[in-house]
Amino acid sequence: MLSWWVGGLGIGLVLIVAVGLVQPIGVSTQYVVLDGVLLHNVLPDVASRSPYLAKTAQGWTLATYEFFFVLGIPLGALLAAMATARFTTRVVPVEWSKRFGSNPGNRLVWSFVGGFLLLFGARFGGGCTSGHMISGISQLAISSFLFSAALFISGIVTARVLYRNGGARC
User: Fold this and answer.
1) SS3 call for 163
2) Which residues have CB under 8 Å from 143's CB, separation 6+?
3) What is the spatial distance between Cα 10 and Cα 14, in angstroms, rounded to a whole number?
4) Separation CA 154–CA 165 (nearest Å)
5) Domain boundaries, the chain
6) Which of 4, 13, 33, 159 is deepest in the core (most CB within 10 A)?
7) Alpha-carbon dihedral of residues 58, 61, 62, 63, nearest 10 degrees?
């Protein structure tokens, strides 16, 4: 297993290369771009009536650095899990099962809801964890420091509510 500082140095090096060659790292905008590109191709009239989609996705293509960066996230996670022999097909983690039951459908639905809320909040807040916490903090953006504090506070509160009767201990 890699040490935390190796991962931190890796992210730092990727950020330096990304900023030097293209732009700071950010992920959440790519979901809007994907929606916009698909909607512009399938229902162009609907897409053209949305100022948000018109601003973020008009004329974009999916063959961009950012889109491949987004595709690399799950691929990198898969490769890391396989390289460290931690790959599993388990849908319901042990801690989730203890608290909410072992129904995989339930777990998948709530994972989708949580992901949707996270992405909605990221777009509403003008950036995601990669955009704010990696790129924004490296540029000393006050909004990114505020975002990071809010993220950690809400994560701690959420974990304490969901796992109030025990569960994973850090």
Assistant:
1) coil
2) 126, 132, 136
3) 6
4) 18
5) 1-87, 95-170
6) 33
7) -150
